[in-house]
Each structure stands twice: as C-alpha cells, then as structure tokens.
Structure of Alpha/beta hydrolase:
Amino acid sequence: MIESGNAILERHNATFVGSGDETLVLIPGFGTEQSAWRHVVDAFKDRYRILSFDLAGVGPANQIHYDHARYGTLDAYARDVAMVLGALRVERCVCVGHSVAGLVAALASVKAPHLFRKLVLLGASACYRNIGTYRGGFERADIDGLIESATRDYLRWTAQFGQMVVSAPAEDPTVKEFVAALRAMRPDMALSLLLTILQSDLRSRLTEVTVQAVVLQTREDSAVTREAAEYLRDHLAGSVLEVLDASGHLPHLSAPGTVIDALNRHLP
C-alpha cells in the first residue's frame, strides 16, 4: 500500500517552518530529534522553507516505527529519506544531516539525486572504525566496551557517553539535553542503532555520490576523527571541508552561532 503524504508527515513527525523559494531539509543524528535544530531553524526560517523530520529509532521520537531487522543497515534510512522527500514533492533541496544522518542523506542522494541540490554533512563519518591505515577513531575493543557498558548499566552509560560526545562536563546544558534524549530512548533500540552505526563502512560508496557536498567538522570531536572528515572531502567529488572553531559532536547545540555562520557561507 502506498502511503499518502499526510501519512508520511505523521510517521516521521515532519514539519514545515518558514518561507522561501528553496527548501532546507534538516535531519537529526543519533540520540537527538529535530528540536536539536531549533537554533538553525530560527536563523534561516525567513530565508528558506525548512523541512525537519525524525528517522525511526534515531532519537526519542518515532520509536514505534523502529524495526531491528529492517534497520540493520543505513540503506533503510536512506530509503526513508528519499520516500519522505518524494511523498512531500520536495526536489532540489539543500539537505543538512548531522552525524549518521549526513551519510544517510548521501546514500539517499545516490538513490534519487534529483531530490538534492546540495548536501551538508555535519560531524559525519563514512566509517567509525580503525581499519588498516584508515583512522576512524574506534578499535573493535572500543565498540565492544561501549556496548557492554551500556548493556550493564544504561543510565550510567548515558551520562558518560553524553559527556564524551559533547566534550563537556555533566552540568553543561548540551550534555544534559543529550543525556535526557538518550534516556528517553528504548535501550534496545539505542544500542541496536549505535552498533549499526559503529559497524558501518560506507567508504566504497562515496564515489556513487554525485551531489555537491560540504563537510563541516569541529576541531575536536571524540566521535569523528579529523582524518575521517578529510576522507569524506577527498572521496566525495567536488566537496569541501571546513573545520569549525568549536569542539564536540553536537555543535549545532553547543556552538550554534558557529554552525550558523558556516551554513551562511555554504548555503545557496
């Protein structure tokens, strides 16, 4: 059965804000939902028609639609992105994806390049693991340790993971927001998706991306190495990399002005 546009809107909590001839699409990354983009929305709503939506199981919202088997690979999320844009008749959009959502958007652009005018990948990585001479940041033992500690004590793990990802102490507002979002997720969903993300290796797929891309990376990010960001730049045809004067993996929350300034430089 083909879903209607209204059904797609409801299933992915899709919202339109703002006005303008061009559409700006914002997709949140792991452990966050579309509210994480609120500063960006406020900055660009007078310039763009902004579409935000949540992916199944990625954050606290939309967990009812998560299926462990279906979402065992990131391609399933890419199909969802293409489906949402197609159902809502959004074409030639500028799409900003945070973290894993950046690569999901890139995969969606391979499936349906006409839907995208430009990609902005914020804190994205094609592979989070160290493989051969490639430095993605995580050894196999690191991943096993993350999953084991999260399985043993999820609440304690969220506190530690939140501080690591944001690169700030526990009392930092962004850490508190991120930890609260993680704790609002079903632990089995969160760990299943985290494992899918950390085990993914999309390096061989980058040559399939034909849409122009901008890679935005903070100067220090415990989740994504500088080498991983440079790898995206070197293997996405015609792409550019800008290193932001900020730290942590959620700069659109922790340093929104820096991200907004960068977007102003790169958005059409």
